[in-house]
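Problem: given the chain below (258 residues), write out its structure.
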Amino acid sequence: METRDETEETVMADAAKKPKYRVIAEFLRERILDGTYVAGQALPGEEVLAKEFGVTRPTVRQGISELRAAGLVEASMGRGTFVRSPHARPNITRPRGLRREQDGRYVEADAIRWTSHGEPTATRTDAPMALADMLRIPPGEPMFTYDEVHTAEHGRLRQTHRTYIPFSVLVGTRYEETAPPPAPALFTALEAAGHELHWVEHVRTRMPMPDEATTLRLAEGVPLFQLFRVTYNQRERPLVLEEFKLPGDDLEMTFLYA
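Solution.
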């Protein structure tokens, strides 16, 4: 039977084998769960933890990222990291939908000033089965596809935006021989072609693929929101499919109903 001293030595030996950031994460997690740090309380600062554990501040940040991914803490810009309450509002609230400006342009309802990295270029793709089902077109039908990466607030907010436009939607329009504009400018073009538009959004959550985590700068364990927006005309025909991917760790989306 192990003595208390032998047990402590075993625990210390196990801790020595773990990466330092994980030791920090487990130390803080235990104190959150046992009530040492209560909901709304600030954790010790990065400099304090770095000195206590004899590590660099990036190592501390990596440990805290594990707690954020587990939903135990949340960071407040310029204030620090706080124990999260299950009833706390996220730092970012995104109204969902579109609004029409007086000049006829459509813009996102969130009113965030997004910057697109690079000019979106149309590429030809064939509709995979899942997307073909949403657009009610045969699998393999050719589509124009646009890809964009958007950032805001000096890169703190990030999202990807992909637009799919089936070739069959463009038959008989001036875009039959040339690529149409991407959304949301596309909506004005569709209305000019005689379509009366309305939209339906489908929201899912899932864990990101490695390239998605890199693009969105997601910490390990952080899920993403995958949002599909389908544009319909007055005959309920799907015309366009948009796909948004957003970080899901500190985001609340609000949907407004007319």
